[in-house]
Each structure stands twice: as C-alpha cells, then as structure tokens.
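User: I'm preparing a small set of examples for a lab meeting where we compare how different chains pack in three dimensions. I only have the primary sequence for this one, and I'd like the structure in token form so I can line it up with the others. Please keep the answer compact; I'll paste it straight into my notes.
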Amino acid sequence: MVTISLALTANAYADFGLSANVATEDDYKNLDNKAGLSLGVEYRGDKFNIGKDGISYEFIHTDKYAVEALATSNNYGFEAKDGKSFTGMDKRKISIDLGGRVIVNTGIGPVTIHATKDVHASKGYEAGIKVGGIAPHPPHWTGERKLTVAAAAGLRYQSKKVIDYYYGVKDSEATASRNFYLGKSAITPYLGVEAQADLTKHISITGNLSVTKQPNAIRNSPLTQDKKYQAEANVGFTYWF
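Assistant: Understood. Below is the structure token output for the 241-residue chain.
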C-alpha cells in the first residue's frame, strides 16, 4: 500500500488533508490489478480525526489509555470486472464499519483493541487486537527529525457473515470451475513492522510490512489463492502545509 497525503492548515499544525492511497490486493486470485487507488480527506484535531484508518472521535483520554468511537472500512469487495475469478458473480460492496477502539499505552508500545459492525455490506462483525506498532494518531512535527520503527503483532476476528460475503460463492454463482462455498468465521494472526519518519515540518513518511497466516475459512474459498501466508506492504508520503 502506498499512501500520499496533502494537508492544508492555517496554524502551526497540519489539520486538514487530501489523501491518496494505493493498497495491494493479494488474497484473491486472478486479479487484473493487485493495487487499488483510493482518495480521501484527512483531518487531525484535538479529539476528532480523519485518517488512513478511518474516522475516529476520542471521548476519553488519559496518559495511560484512550477510548474512541470509530468509523472505517475493513473490506473493499470486488466487481465481476476485477478479474476472471469473479466473472458472473454479484458485486461485493465496500464495508462501512462502525464501532470503537481502546488504545492502552504500555512498556512494549501501544495495545489497540477494536470491535466494529459492517452496517452497509455483510452486516457482520469484526474485532482485533494489536500489540506494538505506531500509535493510530502519531504526534505533529516536534521540531526535530525523528525515525520510529516498531514491531507489531495481532489477531483479527471476522464473523461468519463477513467471510461468507467476501469469500463465499452462492449457488447462483457456482460454475464448473468455481464451486459453491459457504464461509465460516475466522481468526487471522499477523506479524509485522511499522515505521514513521518525520523529515521536516512539512514532510513525513510512513510504512509497514506484515505477514498474515491465512485461516482455512479464507484459504478454502475458490476465490482466493491457496497460500498459508500472505505478505502486505505499505509506503506513505505526507506533505503538510
């Protein structure tokens, strides 16, 4: 994933932004394009934030933890035109996931716990926990160049409705080369490393590399590559005005 963000502000901080994200897609097979581009707006405020991980409102904050309401999109779906594996299939819509998260500051880095419900597409639930990595809201420019690199590990839970919607195959969609498939709930563990470099007041670079262990509920789908492990990469550039 490559992220480019542009921000506009009238003070010392970069509060408003326009972002462009390019994300790698590697779990589905026979994709015509394994990288997707999305555009959006970024905002950094005291409590309200719009960023690459969605929209959040922080209603409890202490030195040790924060509690936030969260609106994000965990799954992007597909259309029949996206690859030959989807020919003749109904469109799977992008998810709109609403919920919350708790961020706890510990000696080994932030621990982030979230839970959301897709109110737009699958109507299923997701939850997860991440230990380490870069905090969801990194600080503004502090006046000095800084590079932060942190390991991260976590688990992601997706309910049966989520897996079946994005990886299942209906009776009406089954063919000689694409069997009917009913998805089940899944837990996906992952390991990775995340980095952020603040180069100047106007320029910062972020990135991460992660490896996930694909659960059988996803691997067994006729829509996916039968790989035990999947790698994802993300590089981002941000220019702050």
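A couple of notes for your slides: The longest helix spans residues 160-167. Residues 1-12 have pLDDT under 50 and may be disordered.

User: Perfect, thanks.
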